[in-house]
Amino acid sequence: MRRSTRCPSRPTSGPRGRARRTRRHPLREVLRRRLRQARHDGAERGWTLPELLVAMTIFLGLIAIVTSILVTVSYQTRDNLARTRAVDQAQLGLRQIDRQVRSGNVISDPAAETISSSGVAPYYSLRVYTQTDGVFQCVQWRVVYPAGSSYGELQYRSWQPSWQVTGGVDDWSVVARDIVRPSSATPVAGDPSTWPPFYVDSTSPAEASSTAQTVRVTLRIKDPEQREQSKPATVTSVLTGRNTVYGYPSDACAAVPAP
Fold first, then answer.
1. Predicted confidence (pLDDT) per residue in 140-183, tens digit
2. pLDDT given for residue 72 in this prediction
3. Phi-psi region for residue 135, left (φ > 0), alpha (ψ -120 to 50) or beta?
4. pTM higher than 0.85
5. Which member of 18, 116, 132, 184 has the greatest number of CB atoms within 10 A?
6. How far is CA 209 from each of CA 106, 192, 201, 240, rounded to the nearest angstrom?
7. Residue 27 — φ and ψ, nearest 5°?
8. Got the DSSP string for 212-256?
């Protein structure tokens, strides 16, 4: 018989051969198992009590900060609106005083005003003999504080120079409200906080450099709706009588009707 020369067959990985075994790395299996377990545990895990308290504390702190900012902005907006209303009233009165003073022939010194002629203390009343719009008349301004109130009113009236014969005395009318007092009853030239409503500053350059009469008008306004710590707005101006250089008699409006 003939001897076979075929070599013994080697195992193959083909479809007909015996499949090779694949060995899995033990460390990789452990990591996969733990990762799968961690995912499963994380899906069911909730908040602990300390974590919940910390989150709530941070949330409440943020709400408190935002609320405080909104309240502050609201107060500031209200103060600004109230201050704007008060300043508008004061500026309206100041423009009217300026118009009368600039056409004034004689300006009485506010320091010489008396309660019997104006109803208020010195520096709180101003009399002007003016010819606004070509009409000669006496006008009087005053800041009066109602009893029990810290907010004053800017009032105005006028009369004919011959009122004792012809009559023609107008009643007081309110031009502006919510006027607060200066910080001191005695005016100090270098301290604006002490300036009264009507004040002649003999040391001012305007008074020293001109023969015309000048007067400083200062109105401090604070709306009652403003907060207590809110500062009042100040409207001030130095007014000069245009016609006071022509030598009109100083007693043109000396006779004053009862206030």
1. 999 999 888 889 999 999 999 889 888 889 999 999 988 999 98
2. 87
3. beta
4. no
5. 132
6. 18, 21, 12, 12
7. -65, -40
8. S-EEEEEEEE--TTS-TTSPPEEEEEEEE-TTTTS---TTTT-S-
